[in-house]
Amino acid sequence: MTRAMIEDWTARFPGLAQLERPIRDLLLARGRVVTLDEGTLVFGPGKSPENMLFLLDGSVRVQQVSETGREIVLYRIHAGESCVLTTACLLAYDDYSAEGVAETPVRAAAIPRTLFDELVATSPAFRSFVFAAFSKRITDLFLVIDEVAFQRMDVRLAATLIELSEGAETLDTTHQKLSVELGTAREVVSRQLTEFQRRGWVRQSRGTIHLLDRPALHRLADEG
């Protein structure tokens, strides 16, 4: 890996871009850029983090899997973000309790634990960056808990269809994948999608959901 290839990756993160030049040079010198294929298990339960990852390209899905095999998506890490679970495990010297899966090809900057510990202890600016990102994601996780515990499933499904479609009229997904997103049974998702189809909001085909009435889905999602 040449210096030119990693010369400016810290500029992708506003908090890192504001660090003193010697700290940024240290990150560039001791960090390394890694690439992962789609579907790669980035981390998993029972494993201890060896690096702090800063995502440069791609998306990582962080999900919890119960003893019975039920899954729920906790959050996603996108380019320009770091992982709150990794941060928590590094700070607490604990193992992961969830798994992270590359949803797309991923490129990330990996900072070794020793450097992370050193900078948290000696650099107020780096420490502020770490805890600012940590607190924001914790707030997001509380929103997930609120949605799962208190919001109606039809409202959550409508919001998820809108979010995952990213403005497109079709969404390539399955009932099983949506059940993981929502932390519920596939049968629950199937019943709700059938109701949406009855109302003329969506049309289903194998592996694809066509959004026919996005305004209606938005109105329902806004009820949450």
Describe this structure in words.
With 224 residues, the chain is α+β, with helices and mostly antiparallel strands. The chain folds into 2 domains: 3-149, Jelly Rolls, CATH 2.60.120.10; 152-222, Arc Repressor Mutant, subunit A (Orthogonal Bundle). It contains 10 helices and 10 strands. The chain has helices at residues 3-6, 14-17, 21-30, 84-92, 113-122, 124-150, 153-165, 175-182, 186-198, 214-222, and strands at 32-36, 41-43, 51-57, 59-65, 71-78, 99-102, 106-112, 170-172, 202-205, 208-211. The strands form 3 sheets. Strands 2-6-4-5 form a 4-stranded antiparallel beta sheet. Strands 1-7-3 form a 3-stranded antiparallel beta sheet. A hairpin with a 2-residue loop joins strand 9 and strand 10 (208-211). The protein is elongated and about 60 Å long. The termini are far apart. Residues 1-6 have low confidence and may be disordered.
Q: Residue share in helices? A: 40-55%
Cα(first) to Cα(last) distance is 48 Å
CATH first level of the largest domain: Mainly Beta
What is the name of the CATH topology of the largest domain? Jelly Rolls
Strand count, sense and closure of the main sheet? 4 strands, antiparallel
Query: So, CATH architecture of the largest domain?
Result: Sandwich
Number of domains: 2
Number of strands: 10
The poorly predicted ranges are 1-6
Primary descriptors:
single chain, 224 residues, alpha+beta, Jelly Rolls, Arc Repressor Mutant, subunit A, four-stranded antiparallel sheet, three-stranded antiparallel sheet, 10 strands, elongated
